[in-house]
Amino acid sequence: MENKILIEIYVPIVEKRYDLFVPINKKLGAVRDLMIKNINEEAGFEYLKKDFYTIYNEENGIPYSLDEIILHQNIRNGHRLIMI
């Protein structure tokens, strides 16, 4: 599990928190797209559109780059993120 970290992503529009084990070499945009796909599958229709959401640090509100891999963005095990 050393190439994966556990992160928590809060999605205010659905009022849910998700715990995810994600590979550190995965782009954050791919994680966002997976989250949106799962939320849309739960809803049974296209509830969220991927082009409208980005991911921020929940503590300080700083946005993360969706084009960079997780390892290069100082996201560590236990980080809490928010997708808005």
Please provide the ordered H/E string of secondary-structure elements.
EEHEE
Q: Give the strand content.
A: 25-35%
Main beta-sheet strand count, sense and barrel state: 4 strands, mixed
Count of discrete structural domains = 1
Mean pLDDT: 93
Shape: globular
The value of Rg in angstroms is 12 Å
The CATH topology: Ubiquitin-like (UB roll)
The class by helix and strand makeup works out as alpha+beta
In whole angstroms, the N-to-C terminal distance is 28 Å
Q: Tell me the number of strands.
A: 4
pLDDT < 50 runs, ≥5 residues: none
Give the % helix: 10-25%
Identify the quaternary structure here: single chain
The count of helical stretches stands at 1
- Considering the protein shown, what is the CATH homologous superfamily? Phosphatidylinositol 3-kinase Catalytic Subunit, Chain A, domain 1
How is this structure best described in words?
With 84 residues, this protein is of the alpha+beta class. It has one domain: Ubiquitin-like (UB roll) (Roll), CATH 3.10.20. It is 19% helix and 27% strand. Strands 2-1-4-3 form a four-stranded mixed β-sheet, with helices on one face. It is globular, with a radius of gyration of 12 Å. It starts with a strand and ends with a strand.
How would you describe this structure in keywords?
19% helix; alpha+beta; Ubiquitin-like (UB roll); 1 helix; 84 residues; 4-stranded mixed β-sheet
Briefly say what this structure is.
This protein is an alpha+beta fold and 84 residues long. It has one domain (4-83): Ubiquitin-like (UB roll) (Roll).
SSE blueprint:
Elements: E1 4-11, E2 16-23, H1 28-43, E3 55-57, E4 80-83
Parallel strand pairs: 1-4
Antiparallel strand pairs: 1-2, 3-4
